[in-house]
Amino acid sequence: MRAPAPAPAHSPSRSLALAVLAGAMLMTVLDGSIVTVAMPAMQTSLGFTPAGLSWVVNAYLIAFGALLLLAGRLGDLIGRRRMFLAGTAVFTGASLLAAVAASPGLLIAARFLQGAGSAMSSAVGLGILVTLFTEPRERARAIAVFSFTGAAGASLGQVLGGLLTDALSWHWIFFINLPIGAATLALAVRALPADRGLGLRAGADALGALLVTAGLTTGIYAVVRIQEHGAASVHTLGLGALSLALLAGFLVRQRRAATPLMPLRILRSRAVAGANLVQLLMVAALFAFQILVALYLQQVRGYDATATGLAMLPAALVIGAVSLGGAARLIARFGERAVLLTGITLLIGVLGLLTRLPVHASYAVDLLPVMLLAAGFGLALPALTALGMSGADEADAGLASGLFNTTQQIGMALGVAVLSTLAAARTEALDAAGRSAAEALTGGYRLAFAAGTGLLVAALAVAAIVLRTPAKAANTEVAIAA
Fold first, then answer.
1. Considering only CA atoms, which of 416, 383, 161 is closest in space to residue 286?
2. In 412-425, which positions are buried (b, 16+ CB within 10 angstroms) versus exposed (e)?
3. 223 and 182, same structural domain?
4. What pLDDT sits at residue 457?
5. DSSP 266
6. Interacting residues of 225 by C-beta distance below 8 A, sequence separation 6+
7. What is the domain extent for residue 348?
8. Which residue has the higher pLDDT, 226 or 180?
9. I need a surface site. Which of 355, 356, 466, 467 has the fewest CB within 10 A?
10. Distance between CA atoms of 275 and 101, rounded to whole angstroms?
11. Residue closest to 293 by CA, chosen among 346, 364, 355
């Protein structure tokens, strides 16, 4: 791997740059979760149909997931700083459009633009970070901070969304992005190092960009519509087949193109390929925790938006404490793989306990222990991020960052579609059998949690078998820790 060039003597503060990158990630993650508790208010205010309301989430997921890989490579070509600034500007402008939306169509369009802006900034964030922090211990700490914003931001978004929706209105969940986005832009101009990029001639594969973007868009669209059409429907299978064909064409194109959008050498790294597969499985499973627990609290236990957010807060606090307080030290002492395996094991405990969730659950007895075990995410995500970026050299850092974020979004889309569909089917069956509404809903959620547990077990197996800490790197880490 080619060593990154040392930072110039007069480069801006790396701490400020890290704060900018983490702040942008927090804004993106908050926007993805803050919407969930405000959706009933949006439906009442704008007159969404039940099917149409899902597109407040789906439009964002489709744009974000489909454009990440392209944005990451373009960041390598035109400069990651330029891509980050452009993405933050698009996201902030789209947030204003969403905040003032007076119709379902306008809100969905704004959410699509938000997803595009998020893809542009998120795709290059990790690439900038790993070129700024090259010393192993510093990089581990920086990745822990960066990962914390992703791990805890989702839970914090639910808290903030509930408070803003109940105290003001749903419009404020988007208005709040405006000062954050403006501050991020102002600080990014000062803090992020300028980079010229490789130039478009070094990798401007227009056909490849078209194939991968169309393939991901079609695939994610098919996944998020599974609950409406069914997994075995002509609609789902047809779009799935089309998506696979487009992505297969993309891979063939990358092998033959003189300037590929995604050089396939990046997938030859066990660290890159393995970490992305583990993340796909892990994120798909943990969507059940974030979304389905919130739905259980509201639909079964009768919590309002604010109470739901506060009930999820302990998870955010323990994830933050572990990510910022101990993950970097543990990674330096024991290596990324050992910390990752420990984190996933704790997360298996989270969903395993939820498979026994009773209808009339006591928060202190049945839910608080689950929130505390979520600390495993604070261990797993920093370790997984470090592994996922360790196999890419400096020239491909933006691409690796975009790929890592792409698998995260695909995992979220799969979690939305598959686990929600399982829960809904089980709920319908129990309802038809004469169970009460609360019993039917709880039974559906328990099945989804069981499926999520299976995904985490698969993630643990892949991590144990595929991911290895190179002996040289492991020795360096132990020496640094000592």
1. 416
2. bbbbbbbbbbbbeb
3. no
4. 94
5. G
6. 58, 235, 236, 239, 417
7. 14-190+261-481
8. 180
9. 356
10. 39
11. 355
User: Looking at the structure, do residues 339 and 466 belong to the same domain, yes or no?
Assistant: yes
Report the alpha-carbon distance of residue 65 to residue 407 in Å, rounded.
8
Do 183 and 321 have their domain in common?
yes
- Report the amino acid identity of residue 351: L
Q: Per the domain annotation, does 317 fall within a domain?
A: yes
Q: Are residues 220 and 333 in the same domain?
A: no
The total of structural domains in the chain comes to 2
Residues sharing a CB contact under 8 Å with residue 425, sequence separation 6 or more, in sequence order:
444
- Reduced to 3 states, what is the DSSP secondary structure of residue 215? helix
Cα 429 from Cα 444, distance rounded (Å): 9
Contact (Cβ atoms closer than 8 angstroms) between residue 382 and residue 326 = no
For residue 43, being part of any structural domain is answered with: yes
Contact 312, 161 (CB under 8 A): no
Query: Based on the domain organization, do 287 and 384 belong to the same domain?
Result: yes
Question: What is the rounded CA–CA span in Å between residue 255 and residue 327?
Answer: 38
pLDDT classification of 147: cutoffs 50, 70, 90? low
Asked if residue 138 belongs to a domain, the reply is yes
Q: What H or E segment, with its residue span, contains residue 167? A: helix 136-167
Q: Of 260, 283, 302, which residue constitutes the final position of a domain? A: 260
Q: Domain end: 260, 279, 302, which one?
A: 260
363: tokens are 């928060």
pLDDT level of residue 383 (50, 70, 90 thresholds):
confident
- Nearest CA to 423 out of 347, 346, 357 is that of 357
Both 305 and 336 in a single domain? yes
Q: Rg of the chain over CA atoms, in angstroms?
A: 21
- CA distance between the termini of the chain: 25
CA nearest neighbour of 447 among 359, 355, 365: 355
Residues 250, 270, single domain; the answer is: no
The amino acid that residue 53 corresponds to is L
* Cβ–Cβ under 8 Å, residues 68 and 123: yes
Helix (H, G, I), strand (E, B) or coil at 47: coil
Number of Cβ within 10 Å of residue 106's Cβ equals 14
**Per-residue confidence (pLDDT) for residue 459, from 0 to 100:** 92
pLDDT, the chain, mean: 78
132 found inside a domain: yes
